[in-house]
Amino acid sequence: xxxxxxxxxxxxxxxxxxxxxxxxxLEQDFLNFLKFSPTDPKKECLLLDSIxxxxxxxxxxxxxxxxxxxxxxxxxxxxxxxxxxxxxxxSKTFILNKT
Length: 99
Prior knowledge:
There is one protein chain. The protein is mainly α. It folds into 2 domains: about 1-70, no CATH class; about 70-99, no CATH class. The relative contact order is 0.10. The protein has helices at about 20-35, 45-60, 80-90.
């Protein structure tokens, strides 16, 4: 099934700027993850979970900054060539039409 998009859909492009106190928290959070899930290859230490835990514990806020920029993402190794070609061409339109 092919989905038609209008170009007005919202997406999430995550770029985080972290303060030193978060990085200290993240280090401890990761060490705890390793301590409680040392051999389970299906377990993941997710950055967003650590951010959520930090916000709850520190009572700090995060800020969302909207942008009109067009995202280019490399999710799979095969995407690299497509992205390189788009960047070289200077194109401002990035429509991925995989079949």
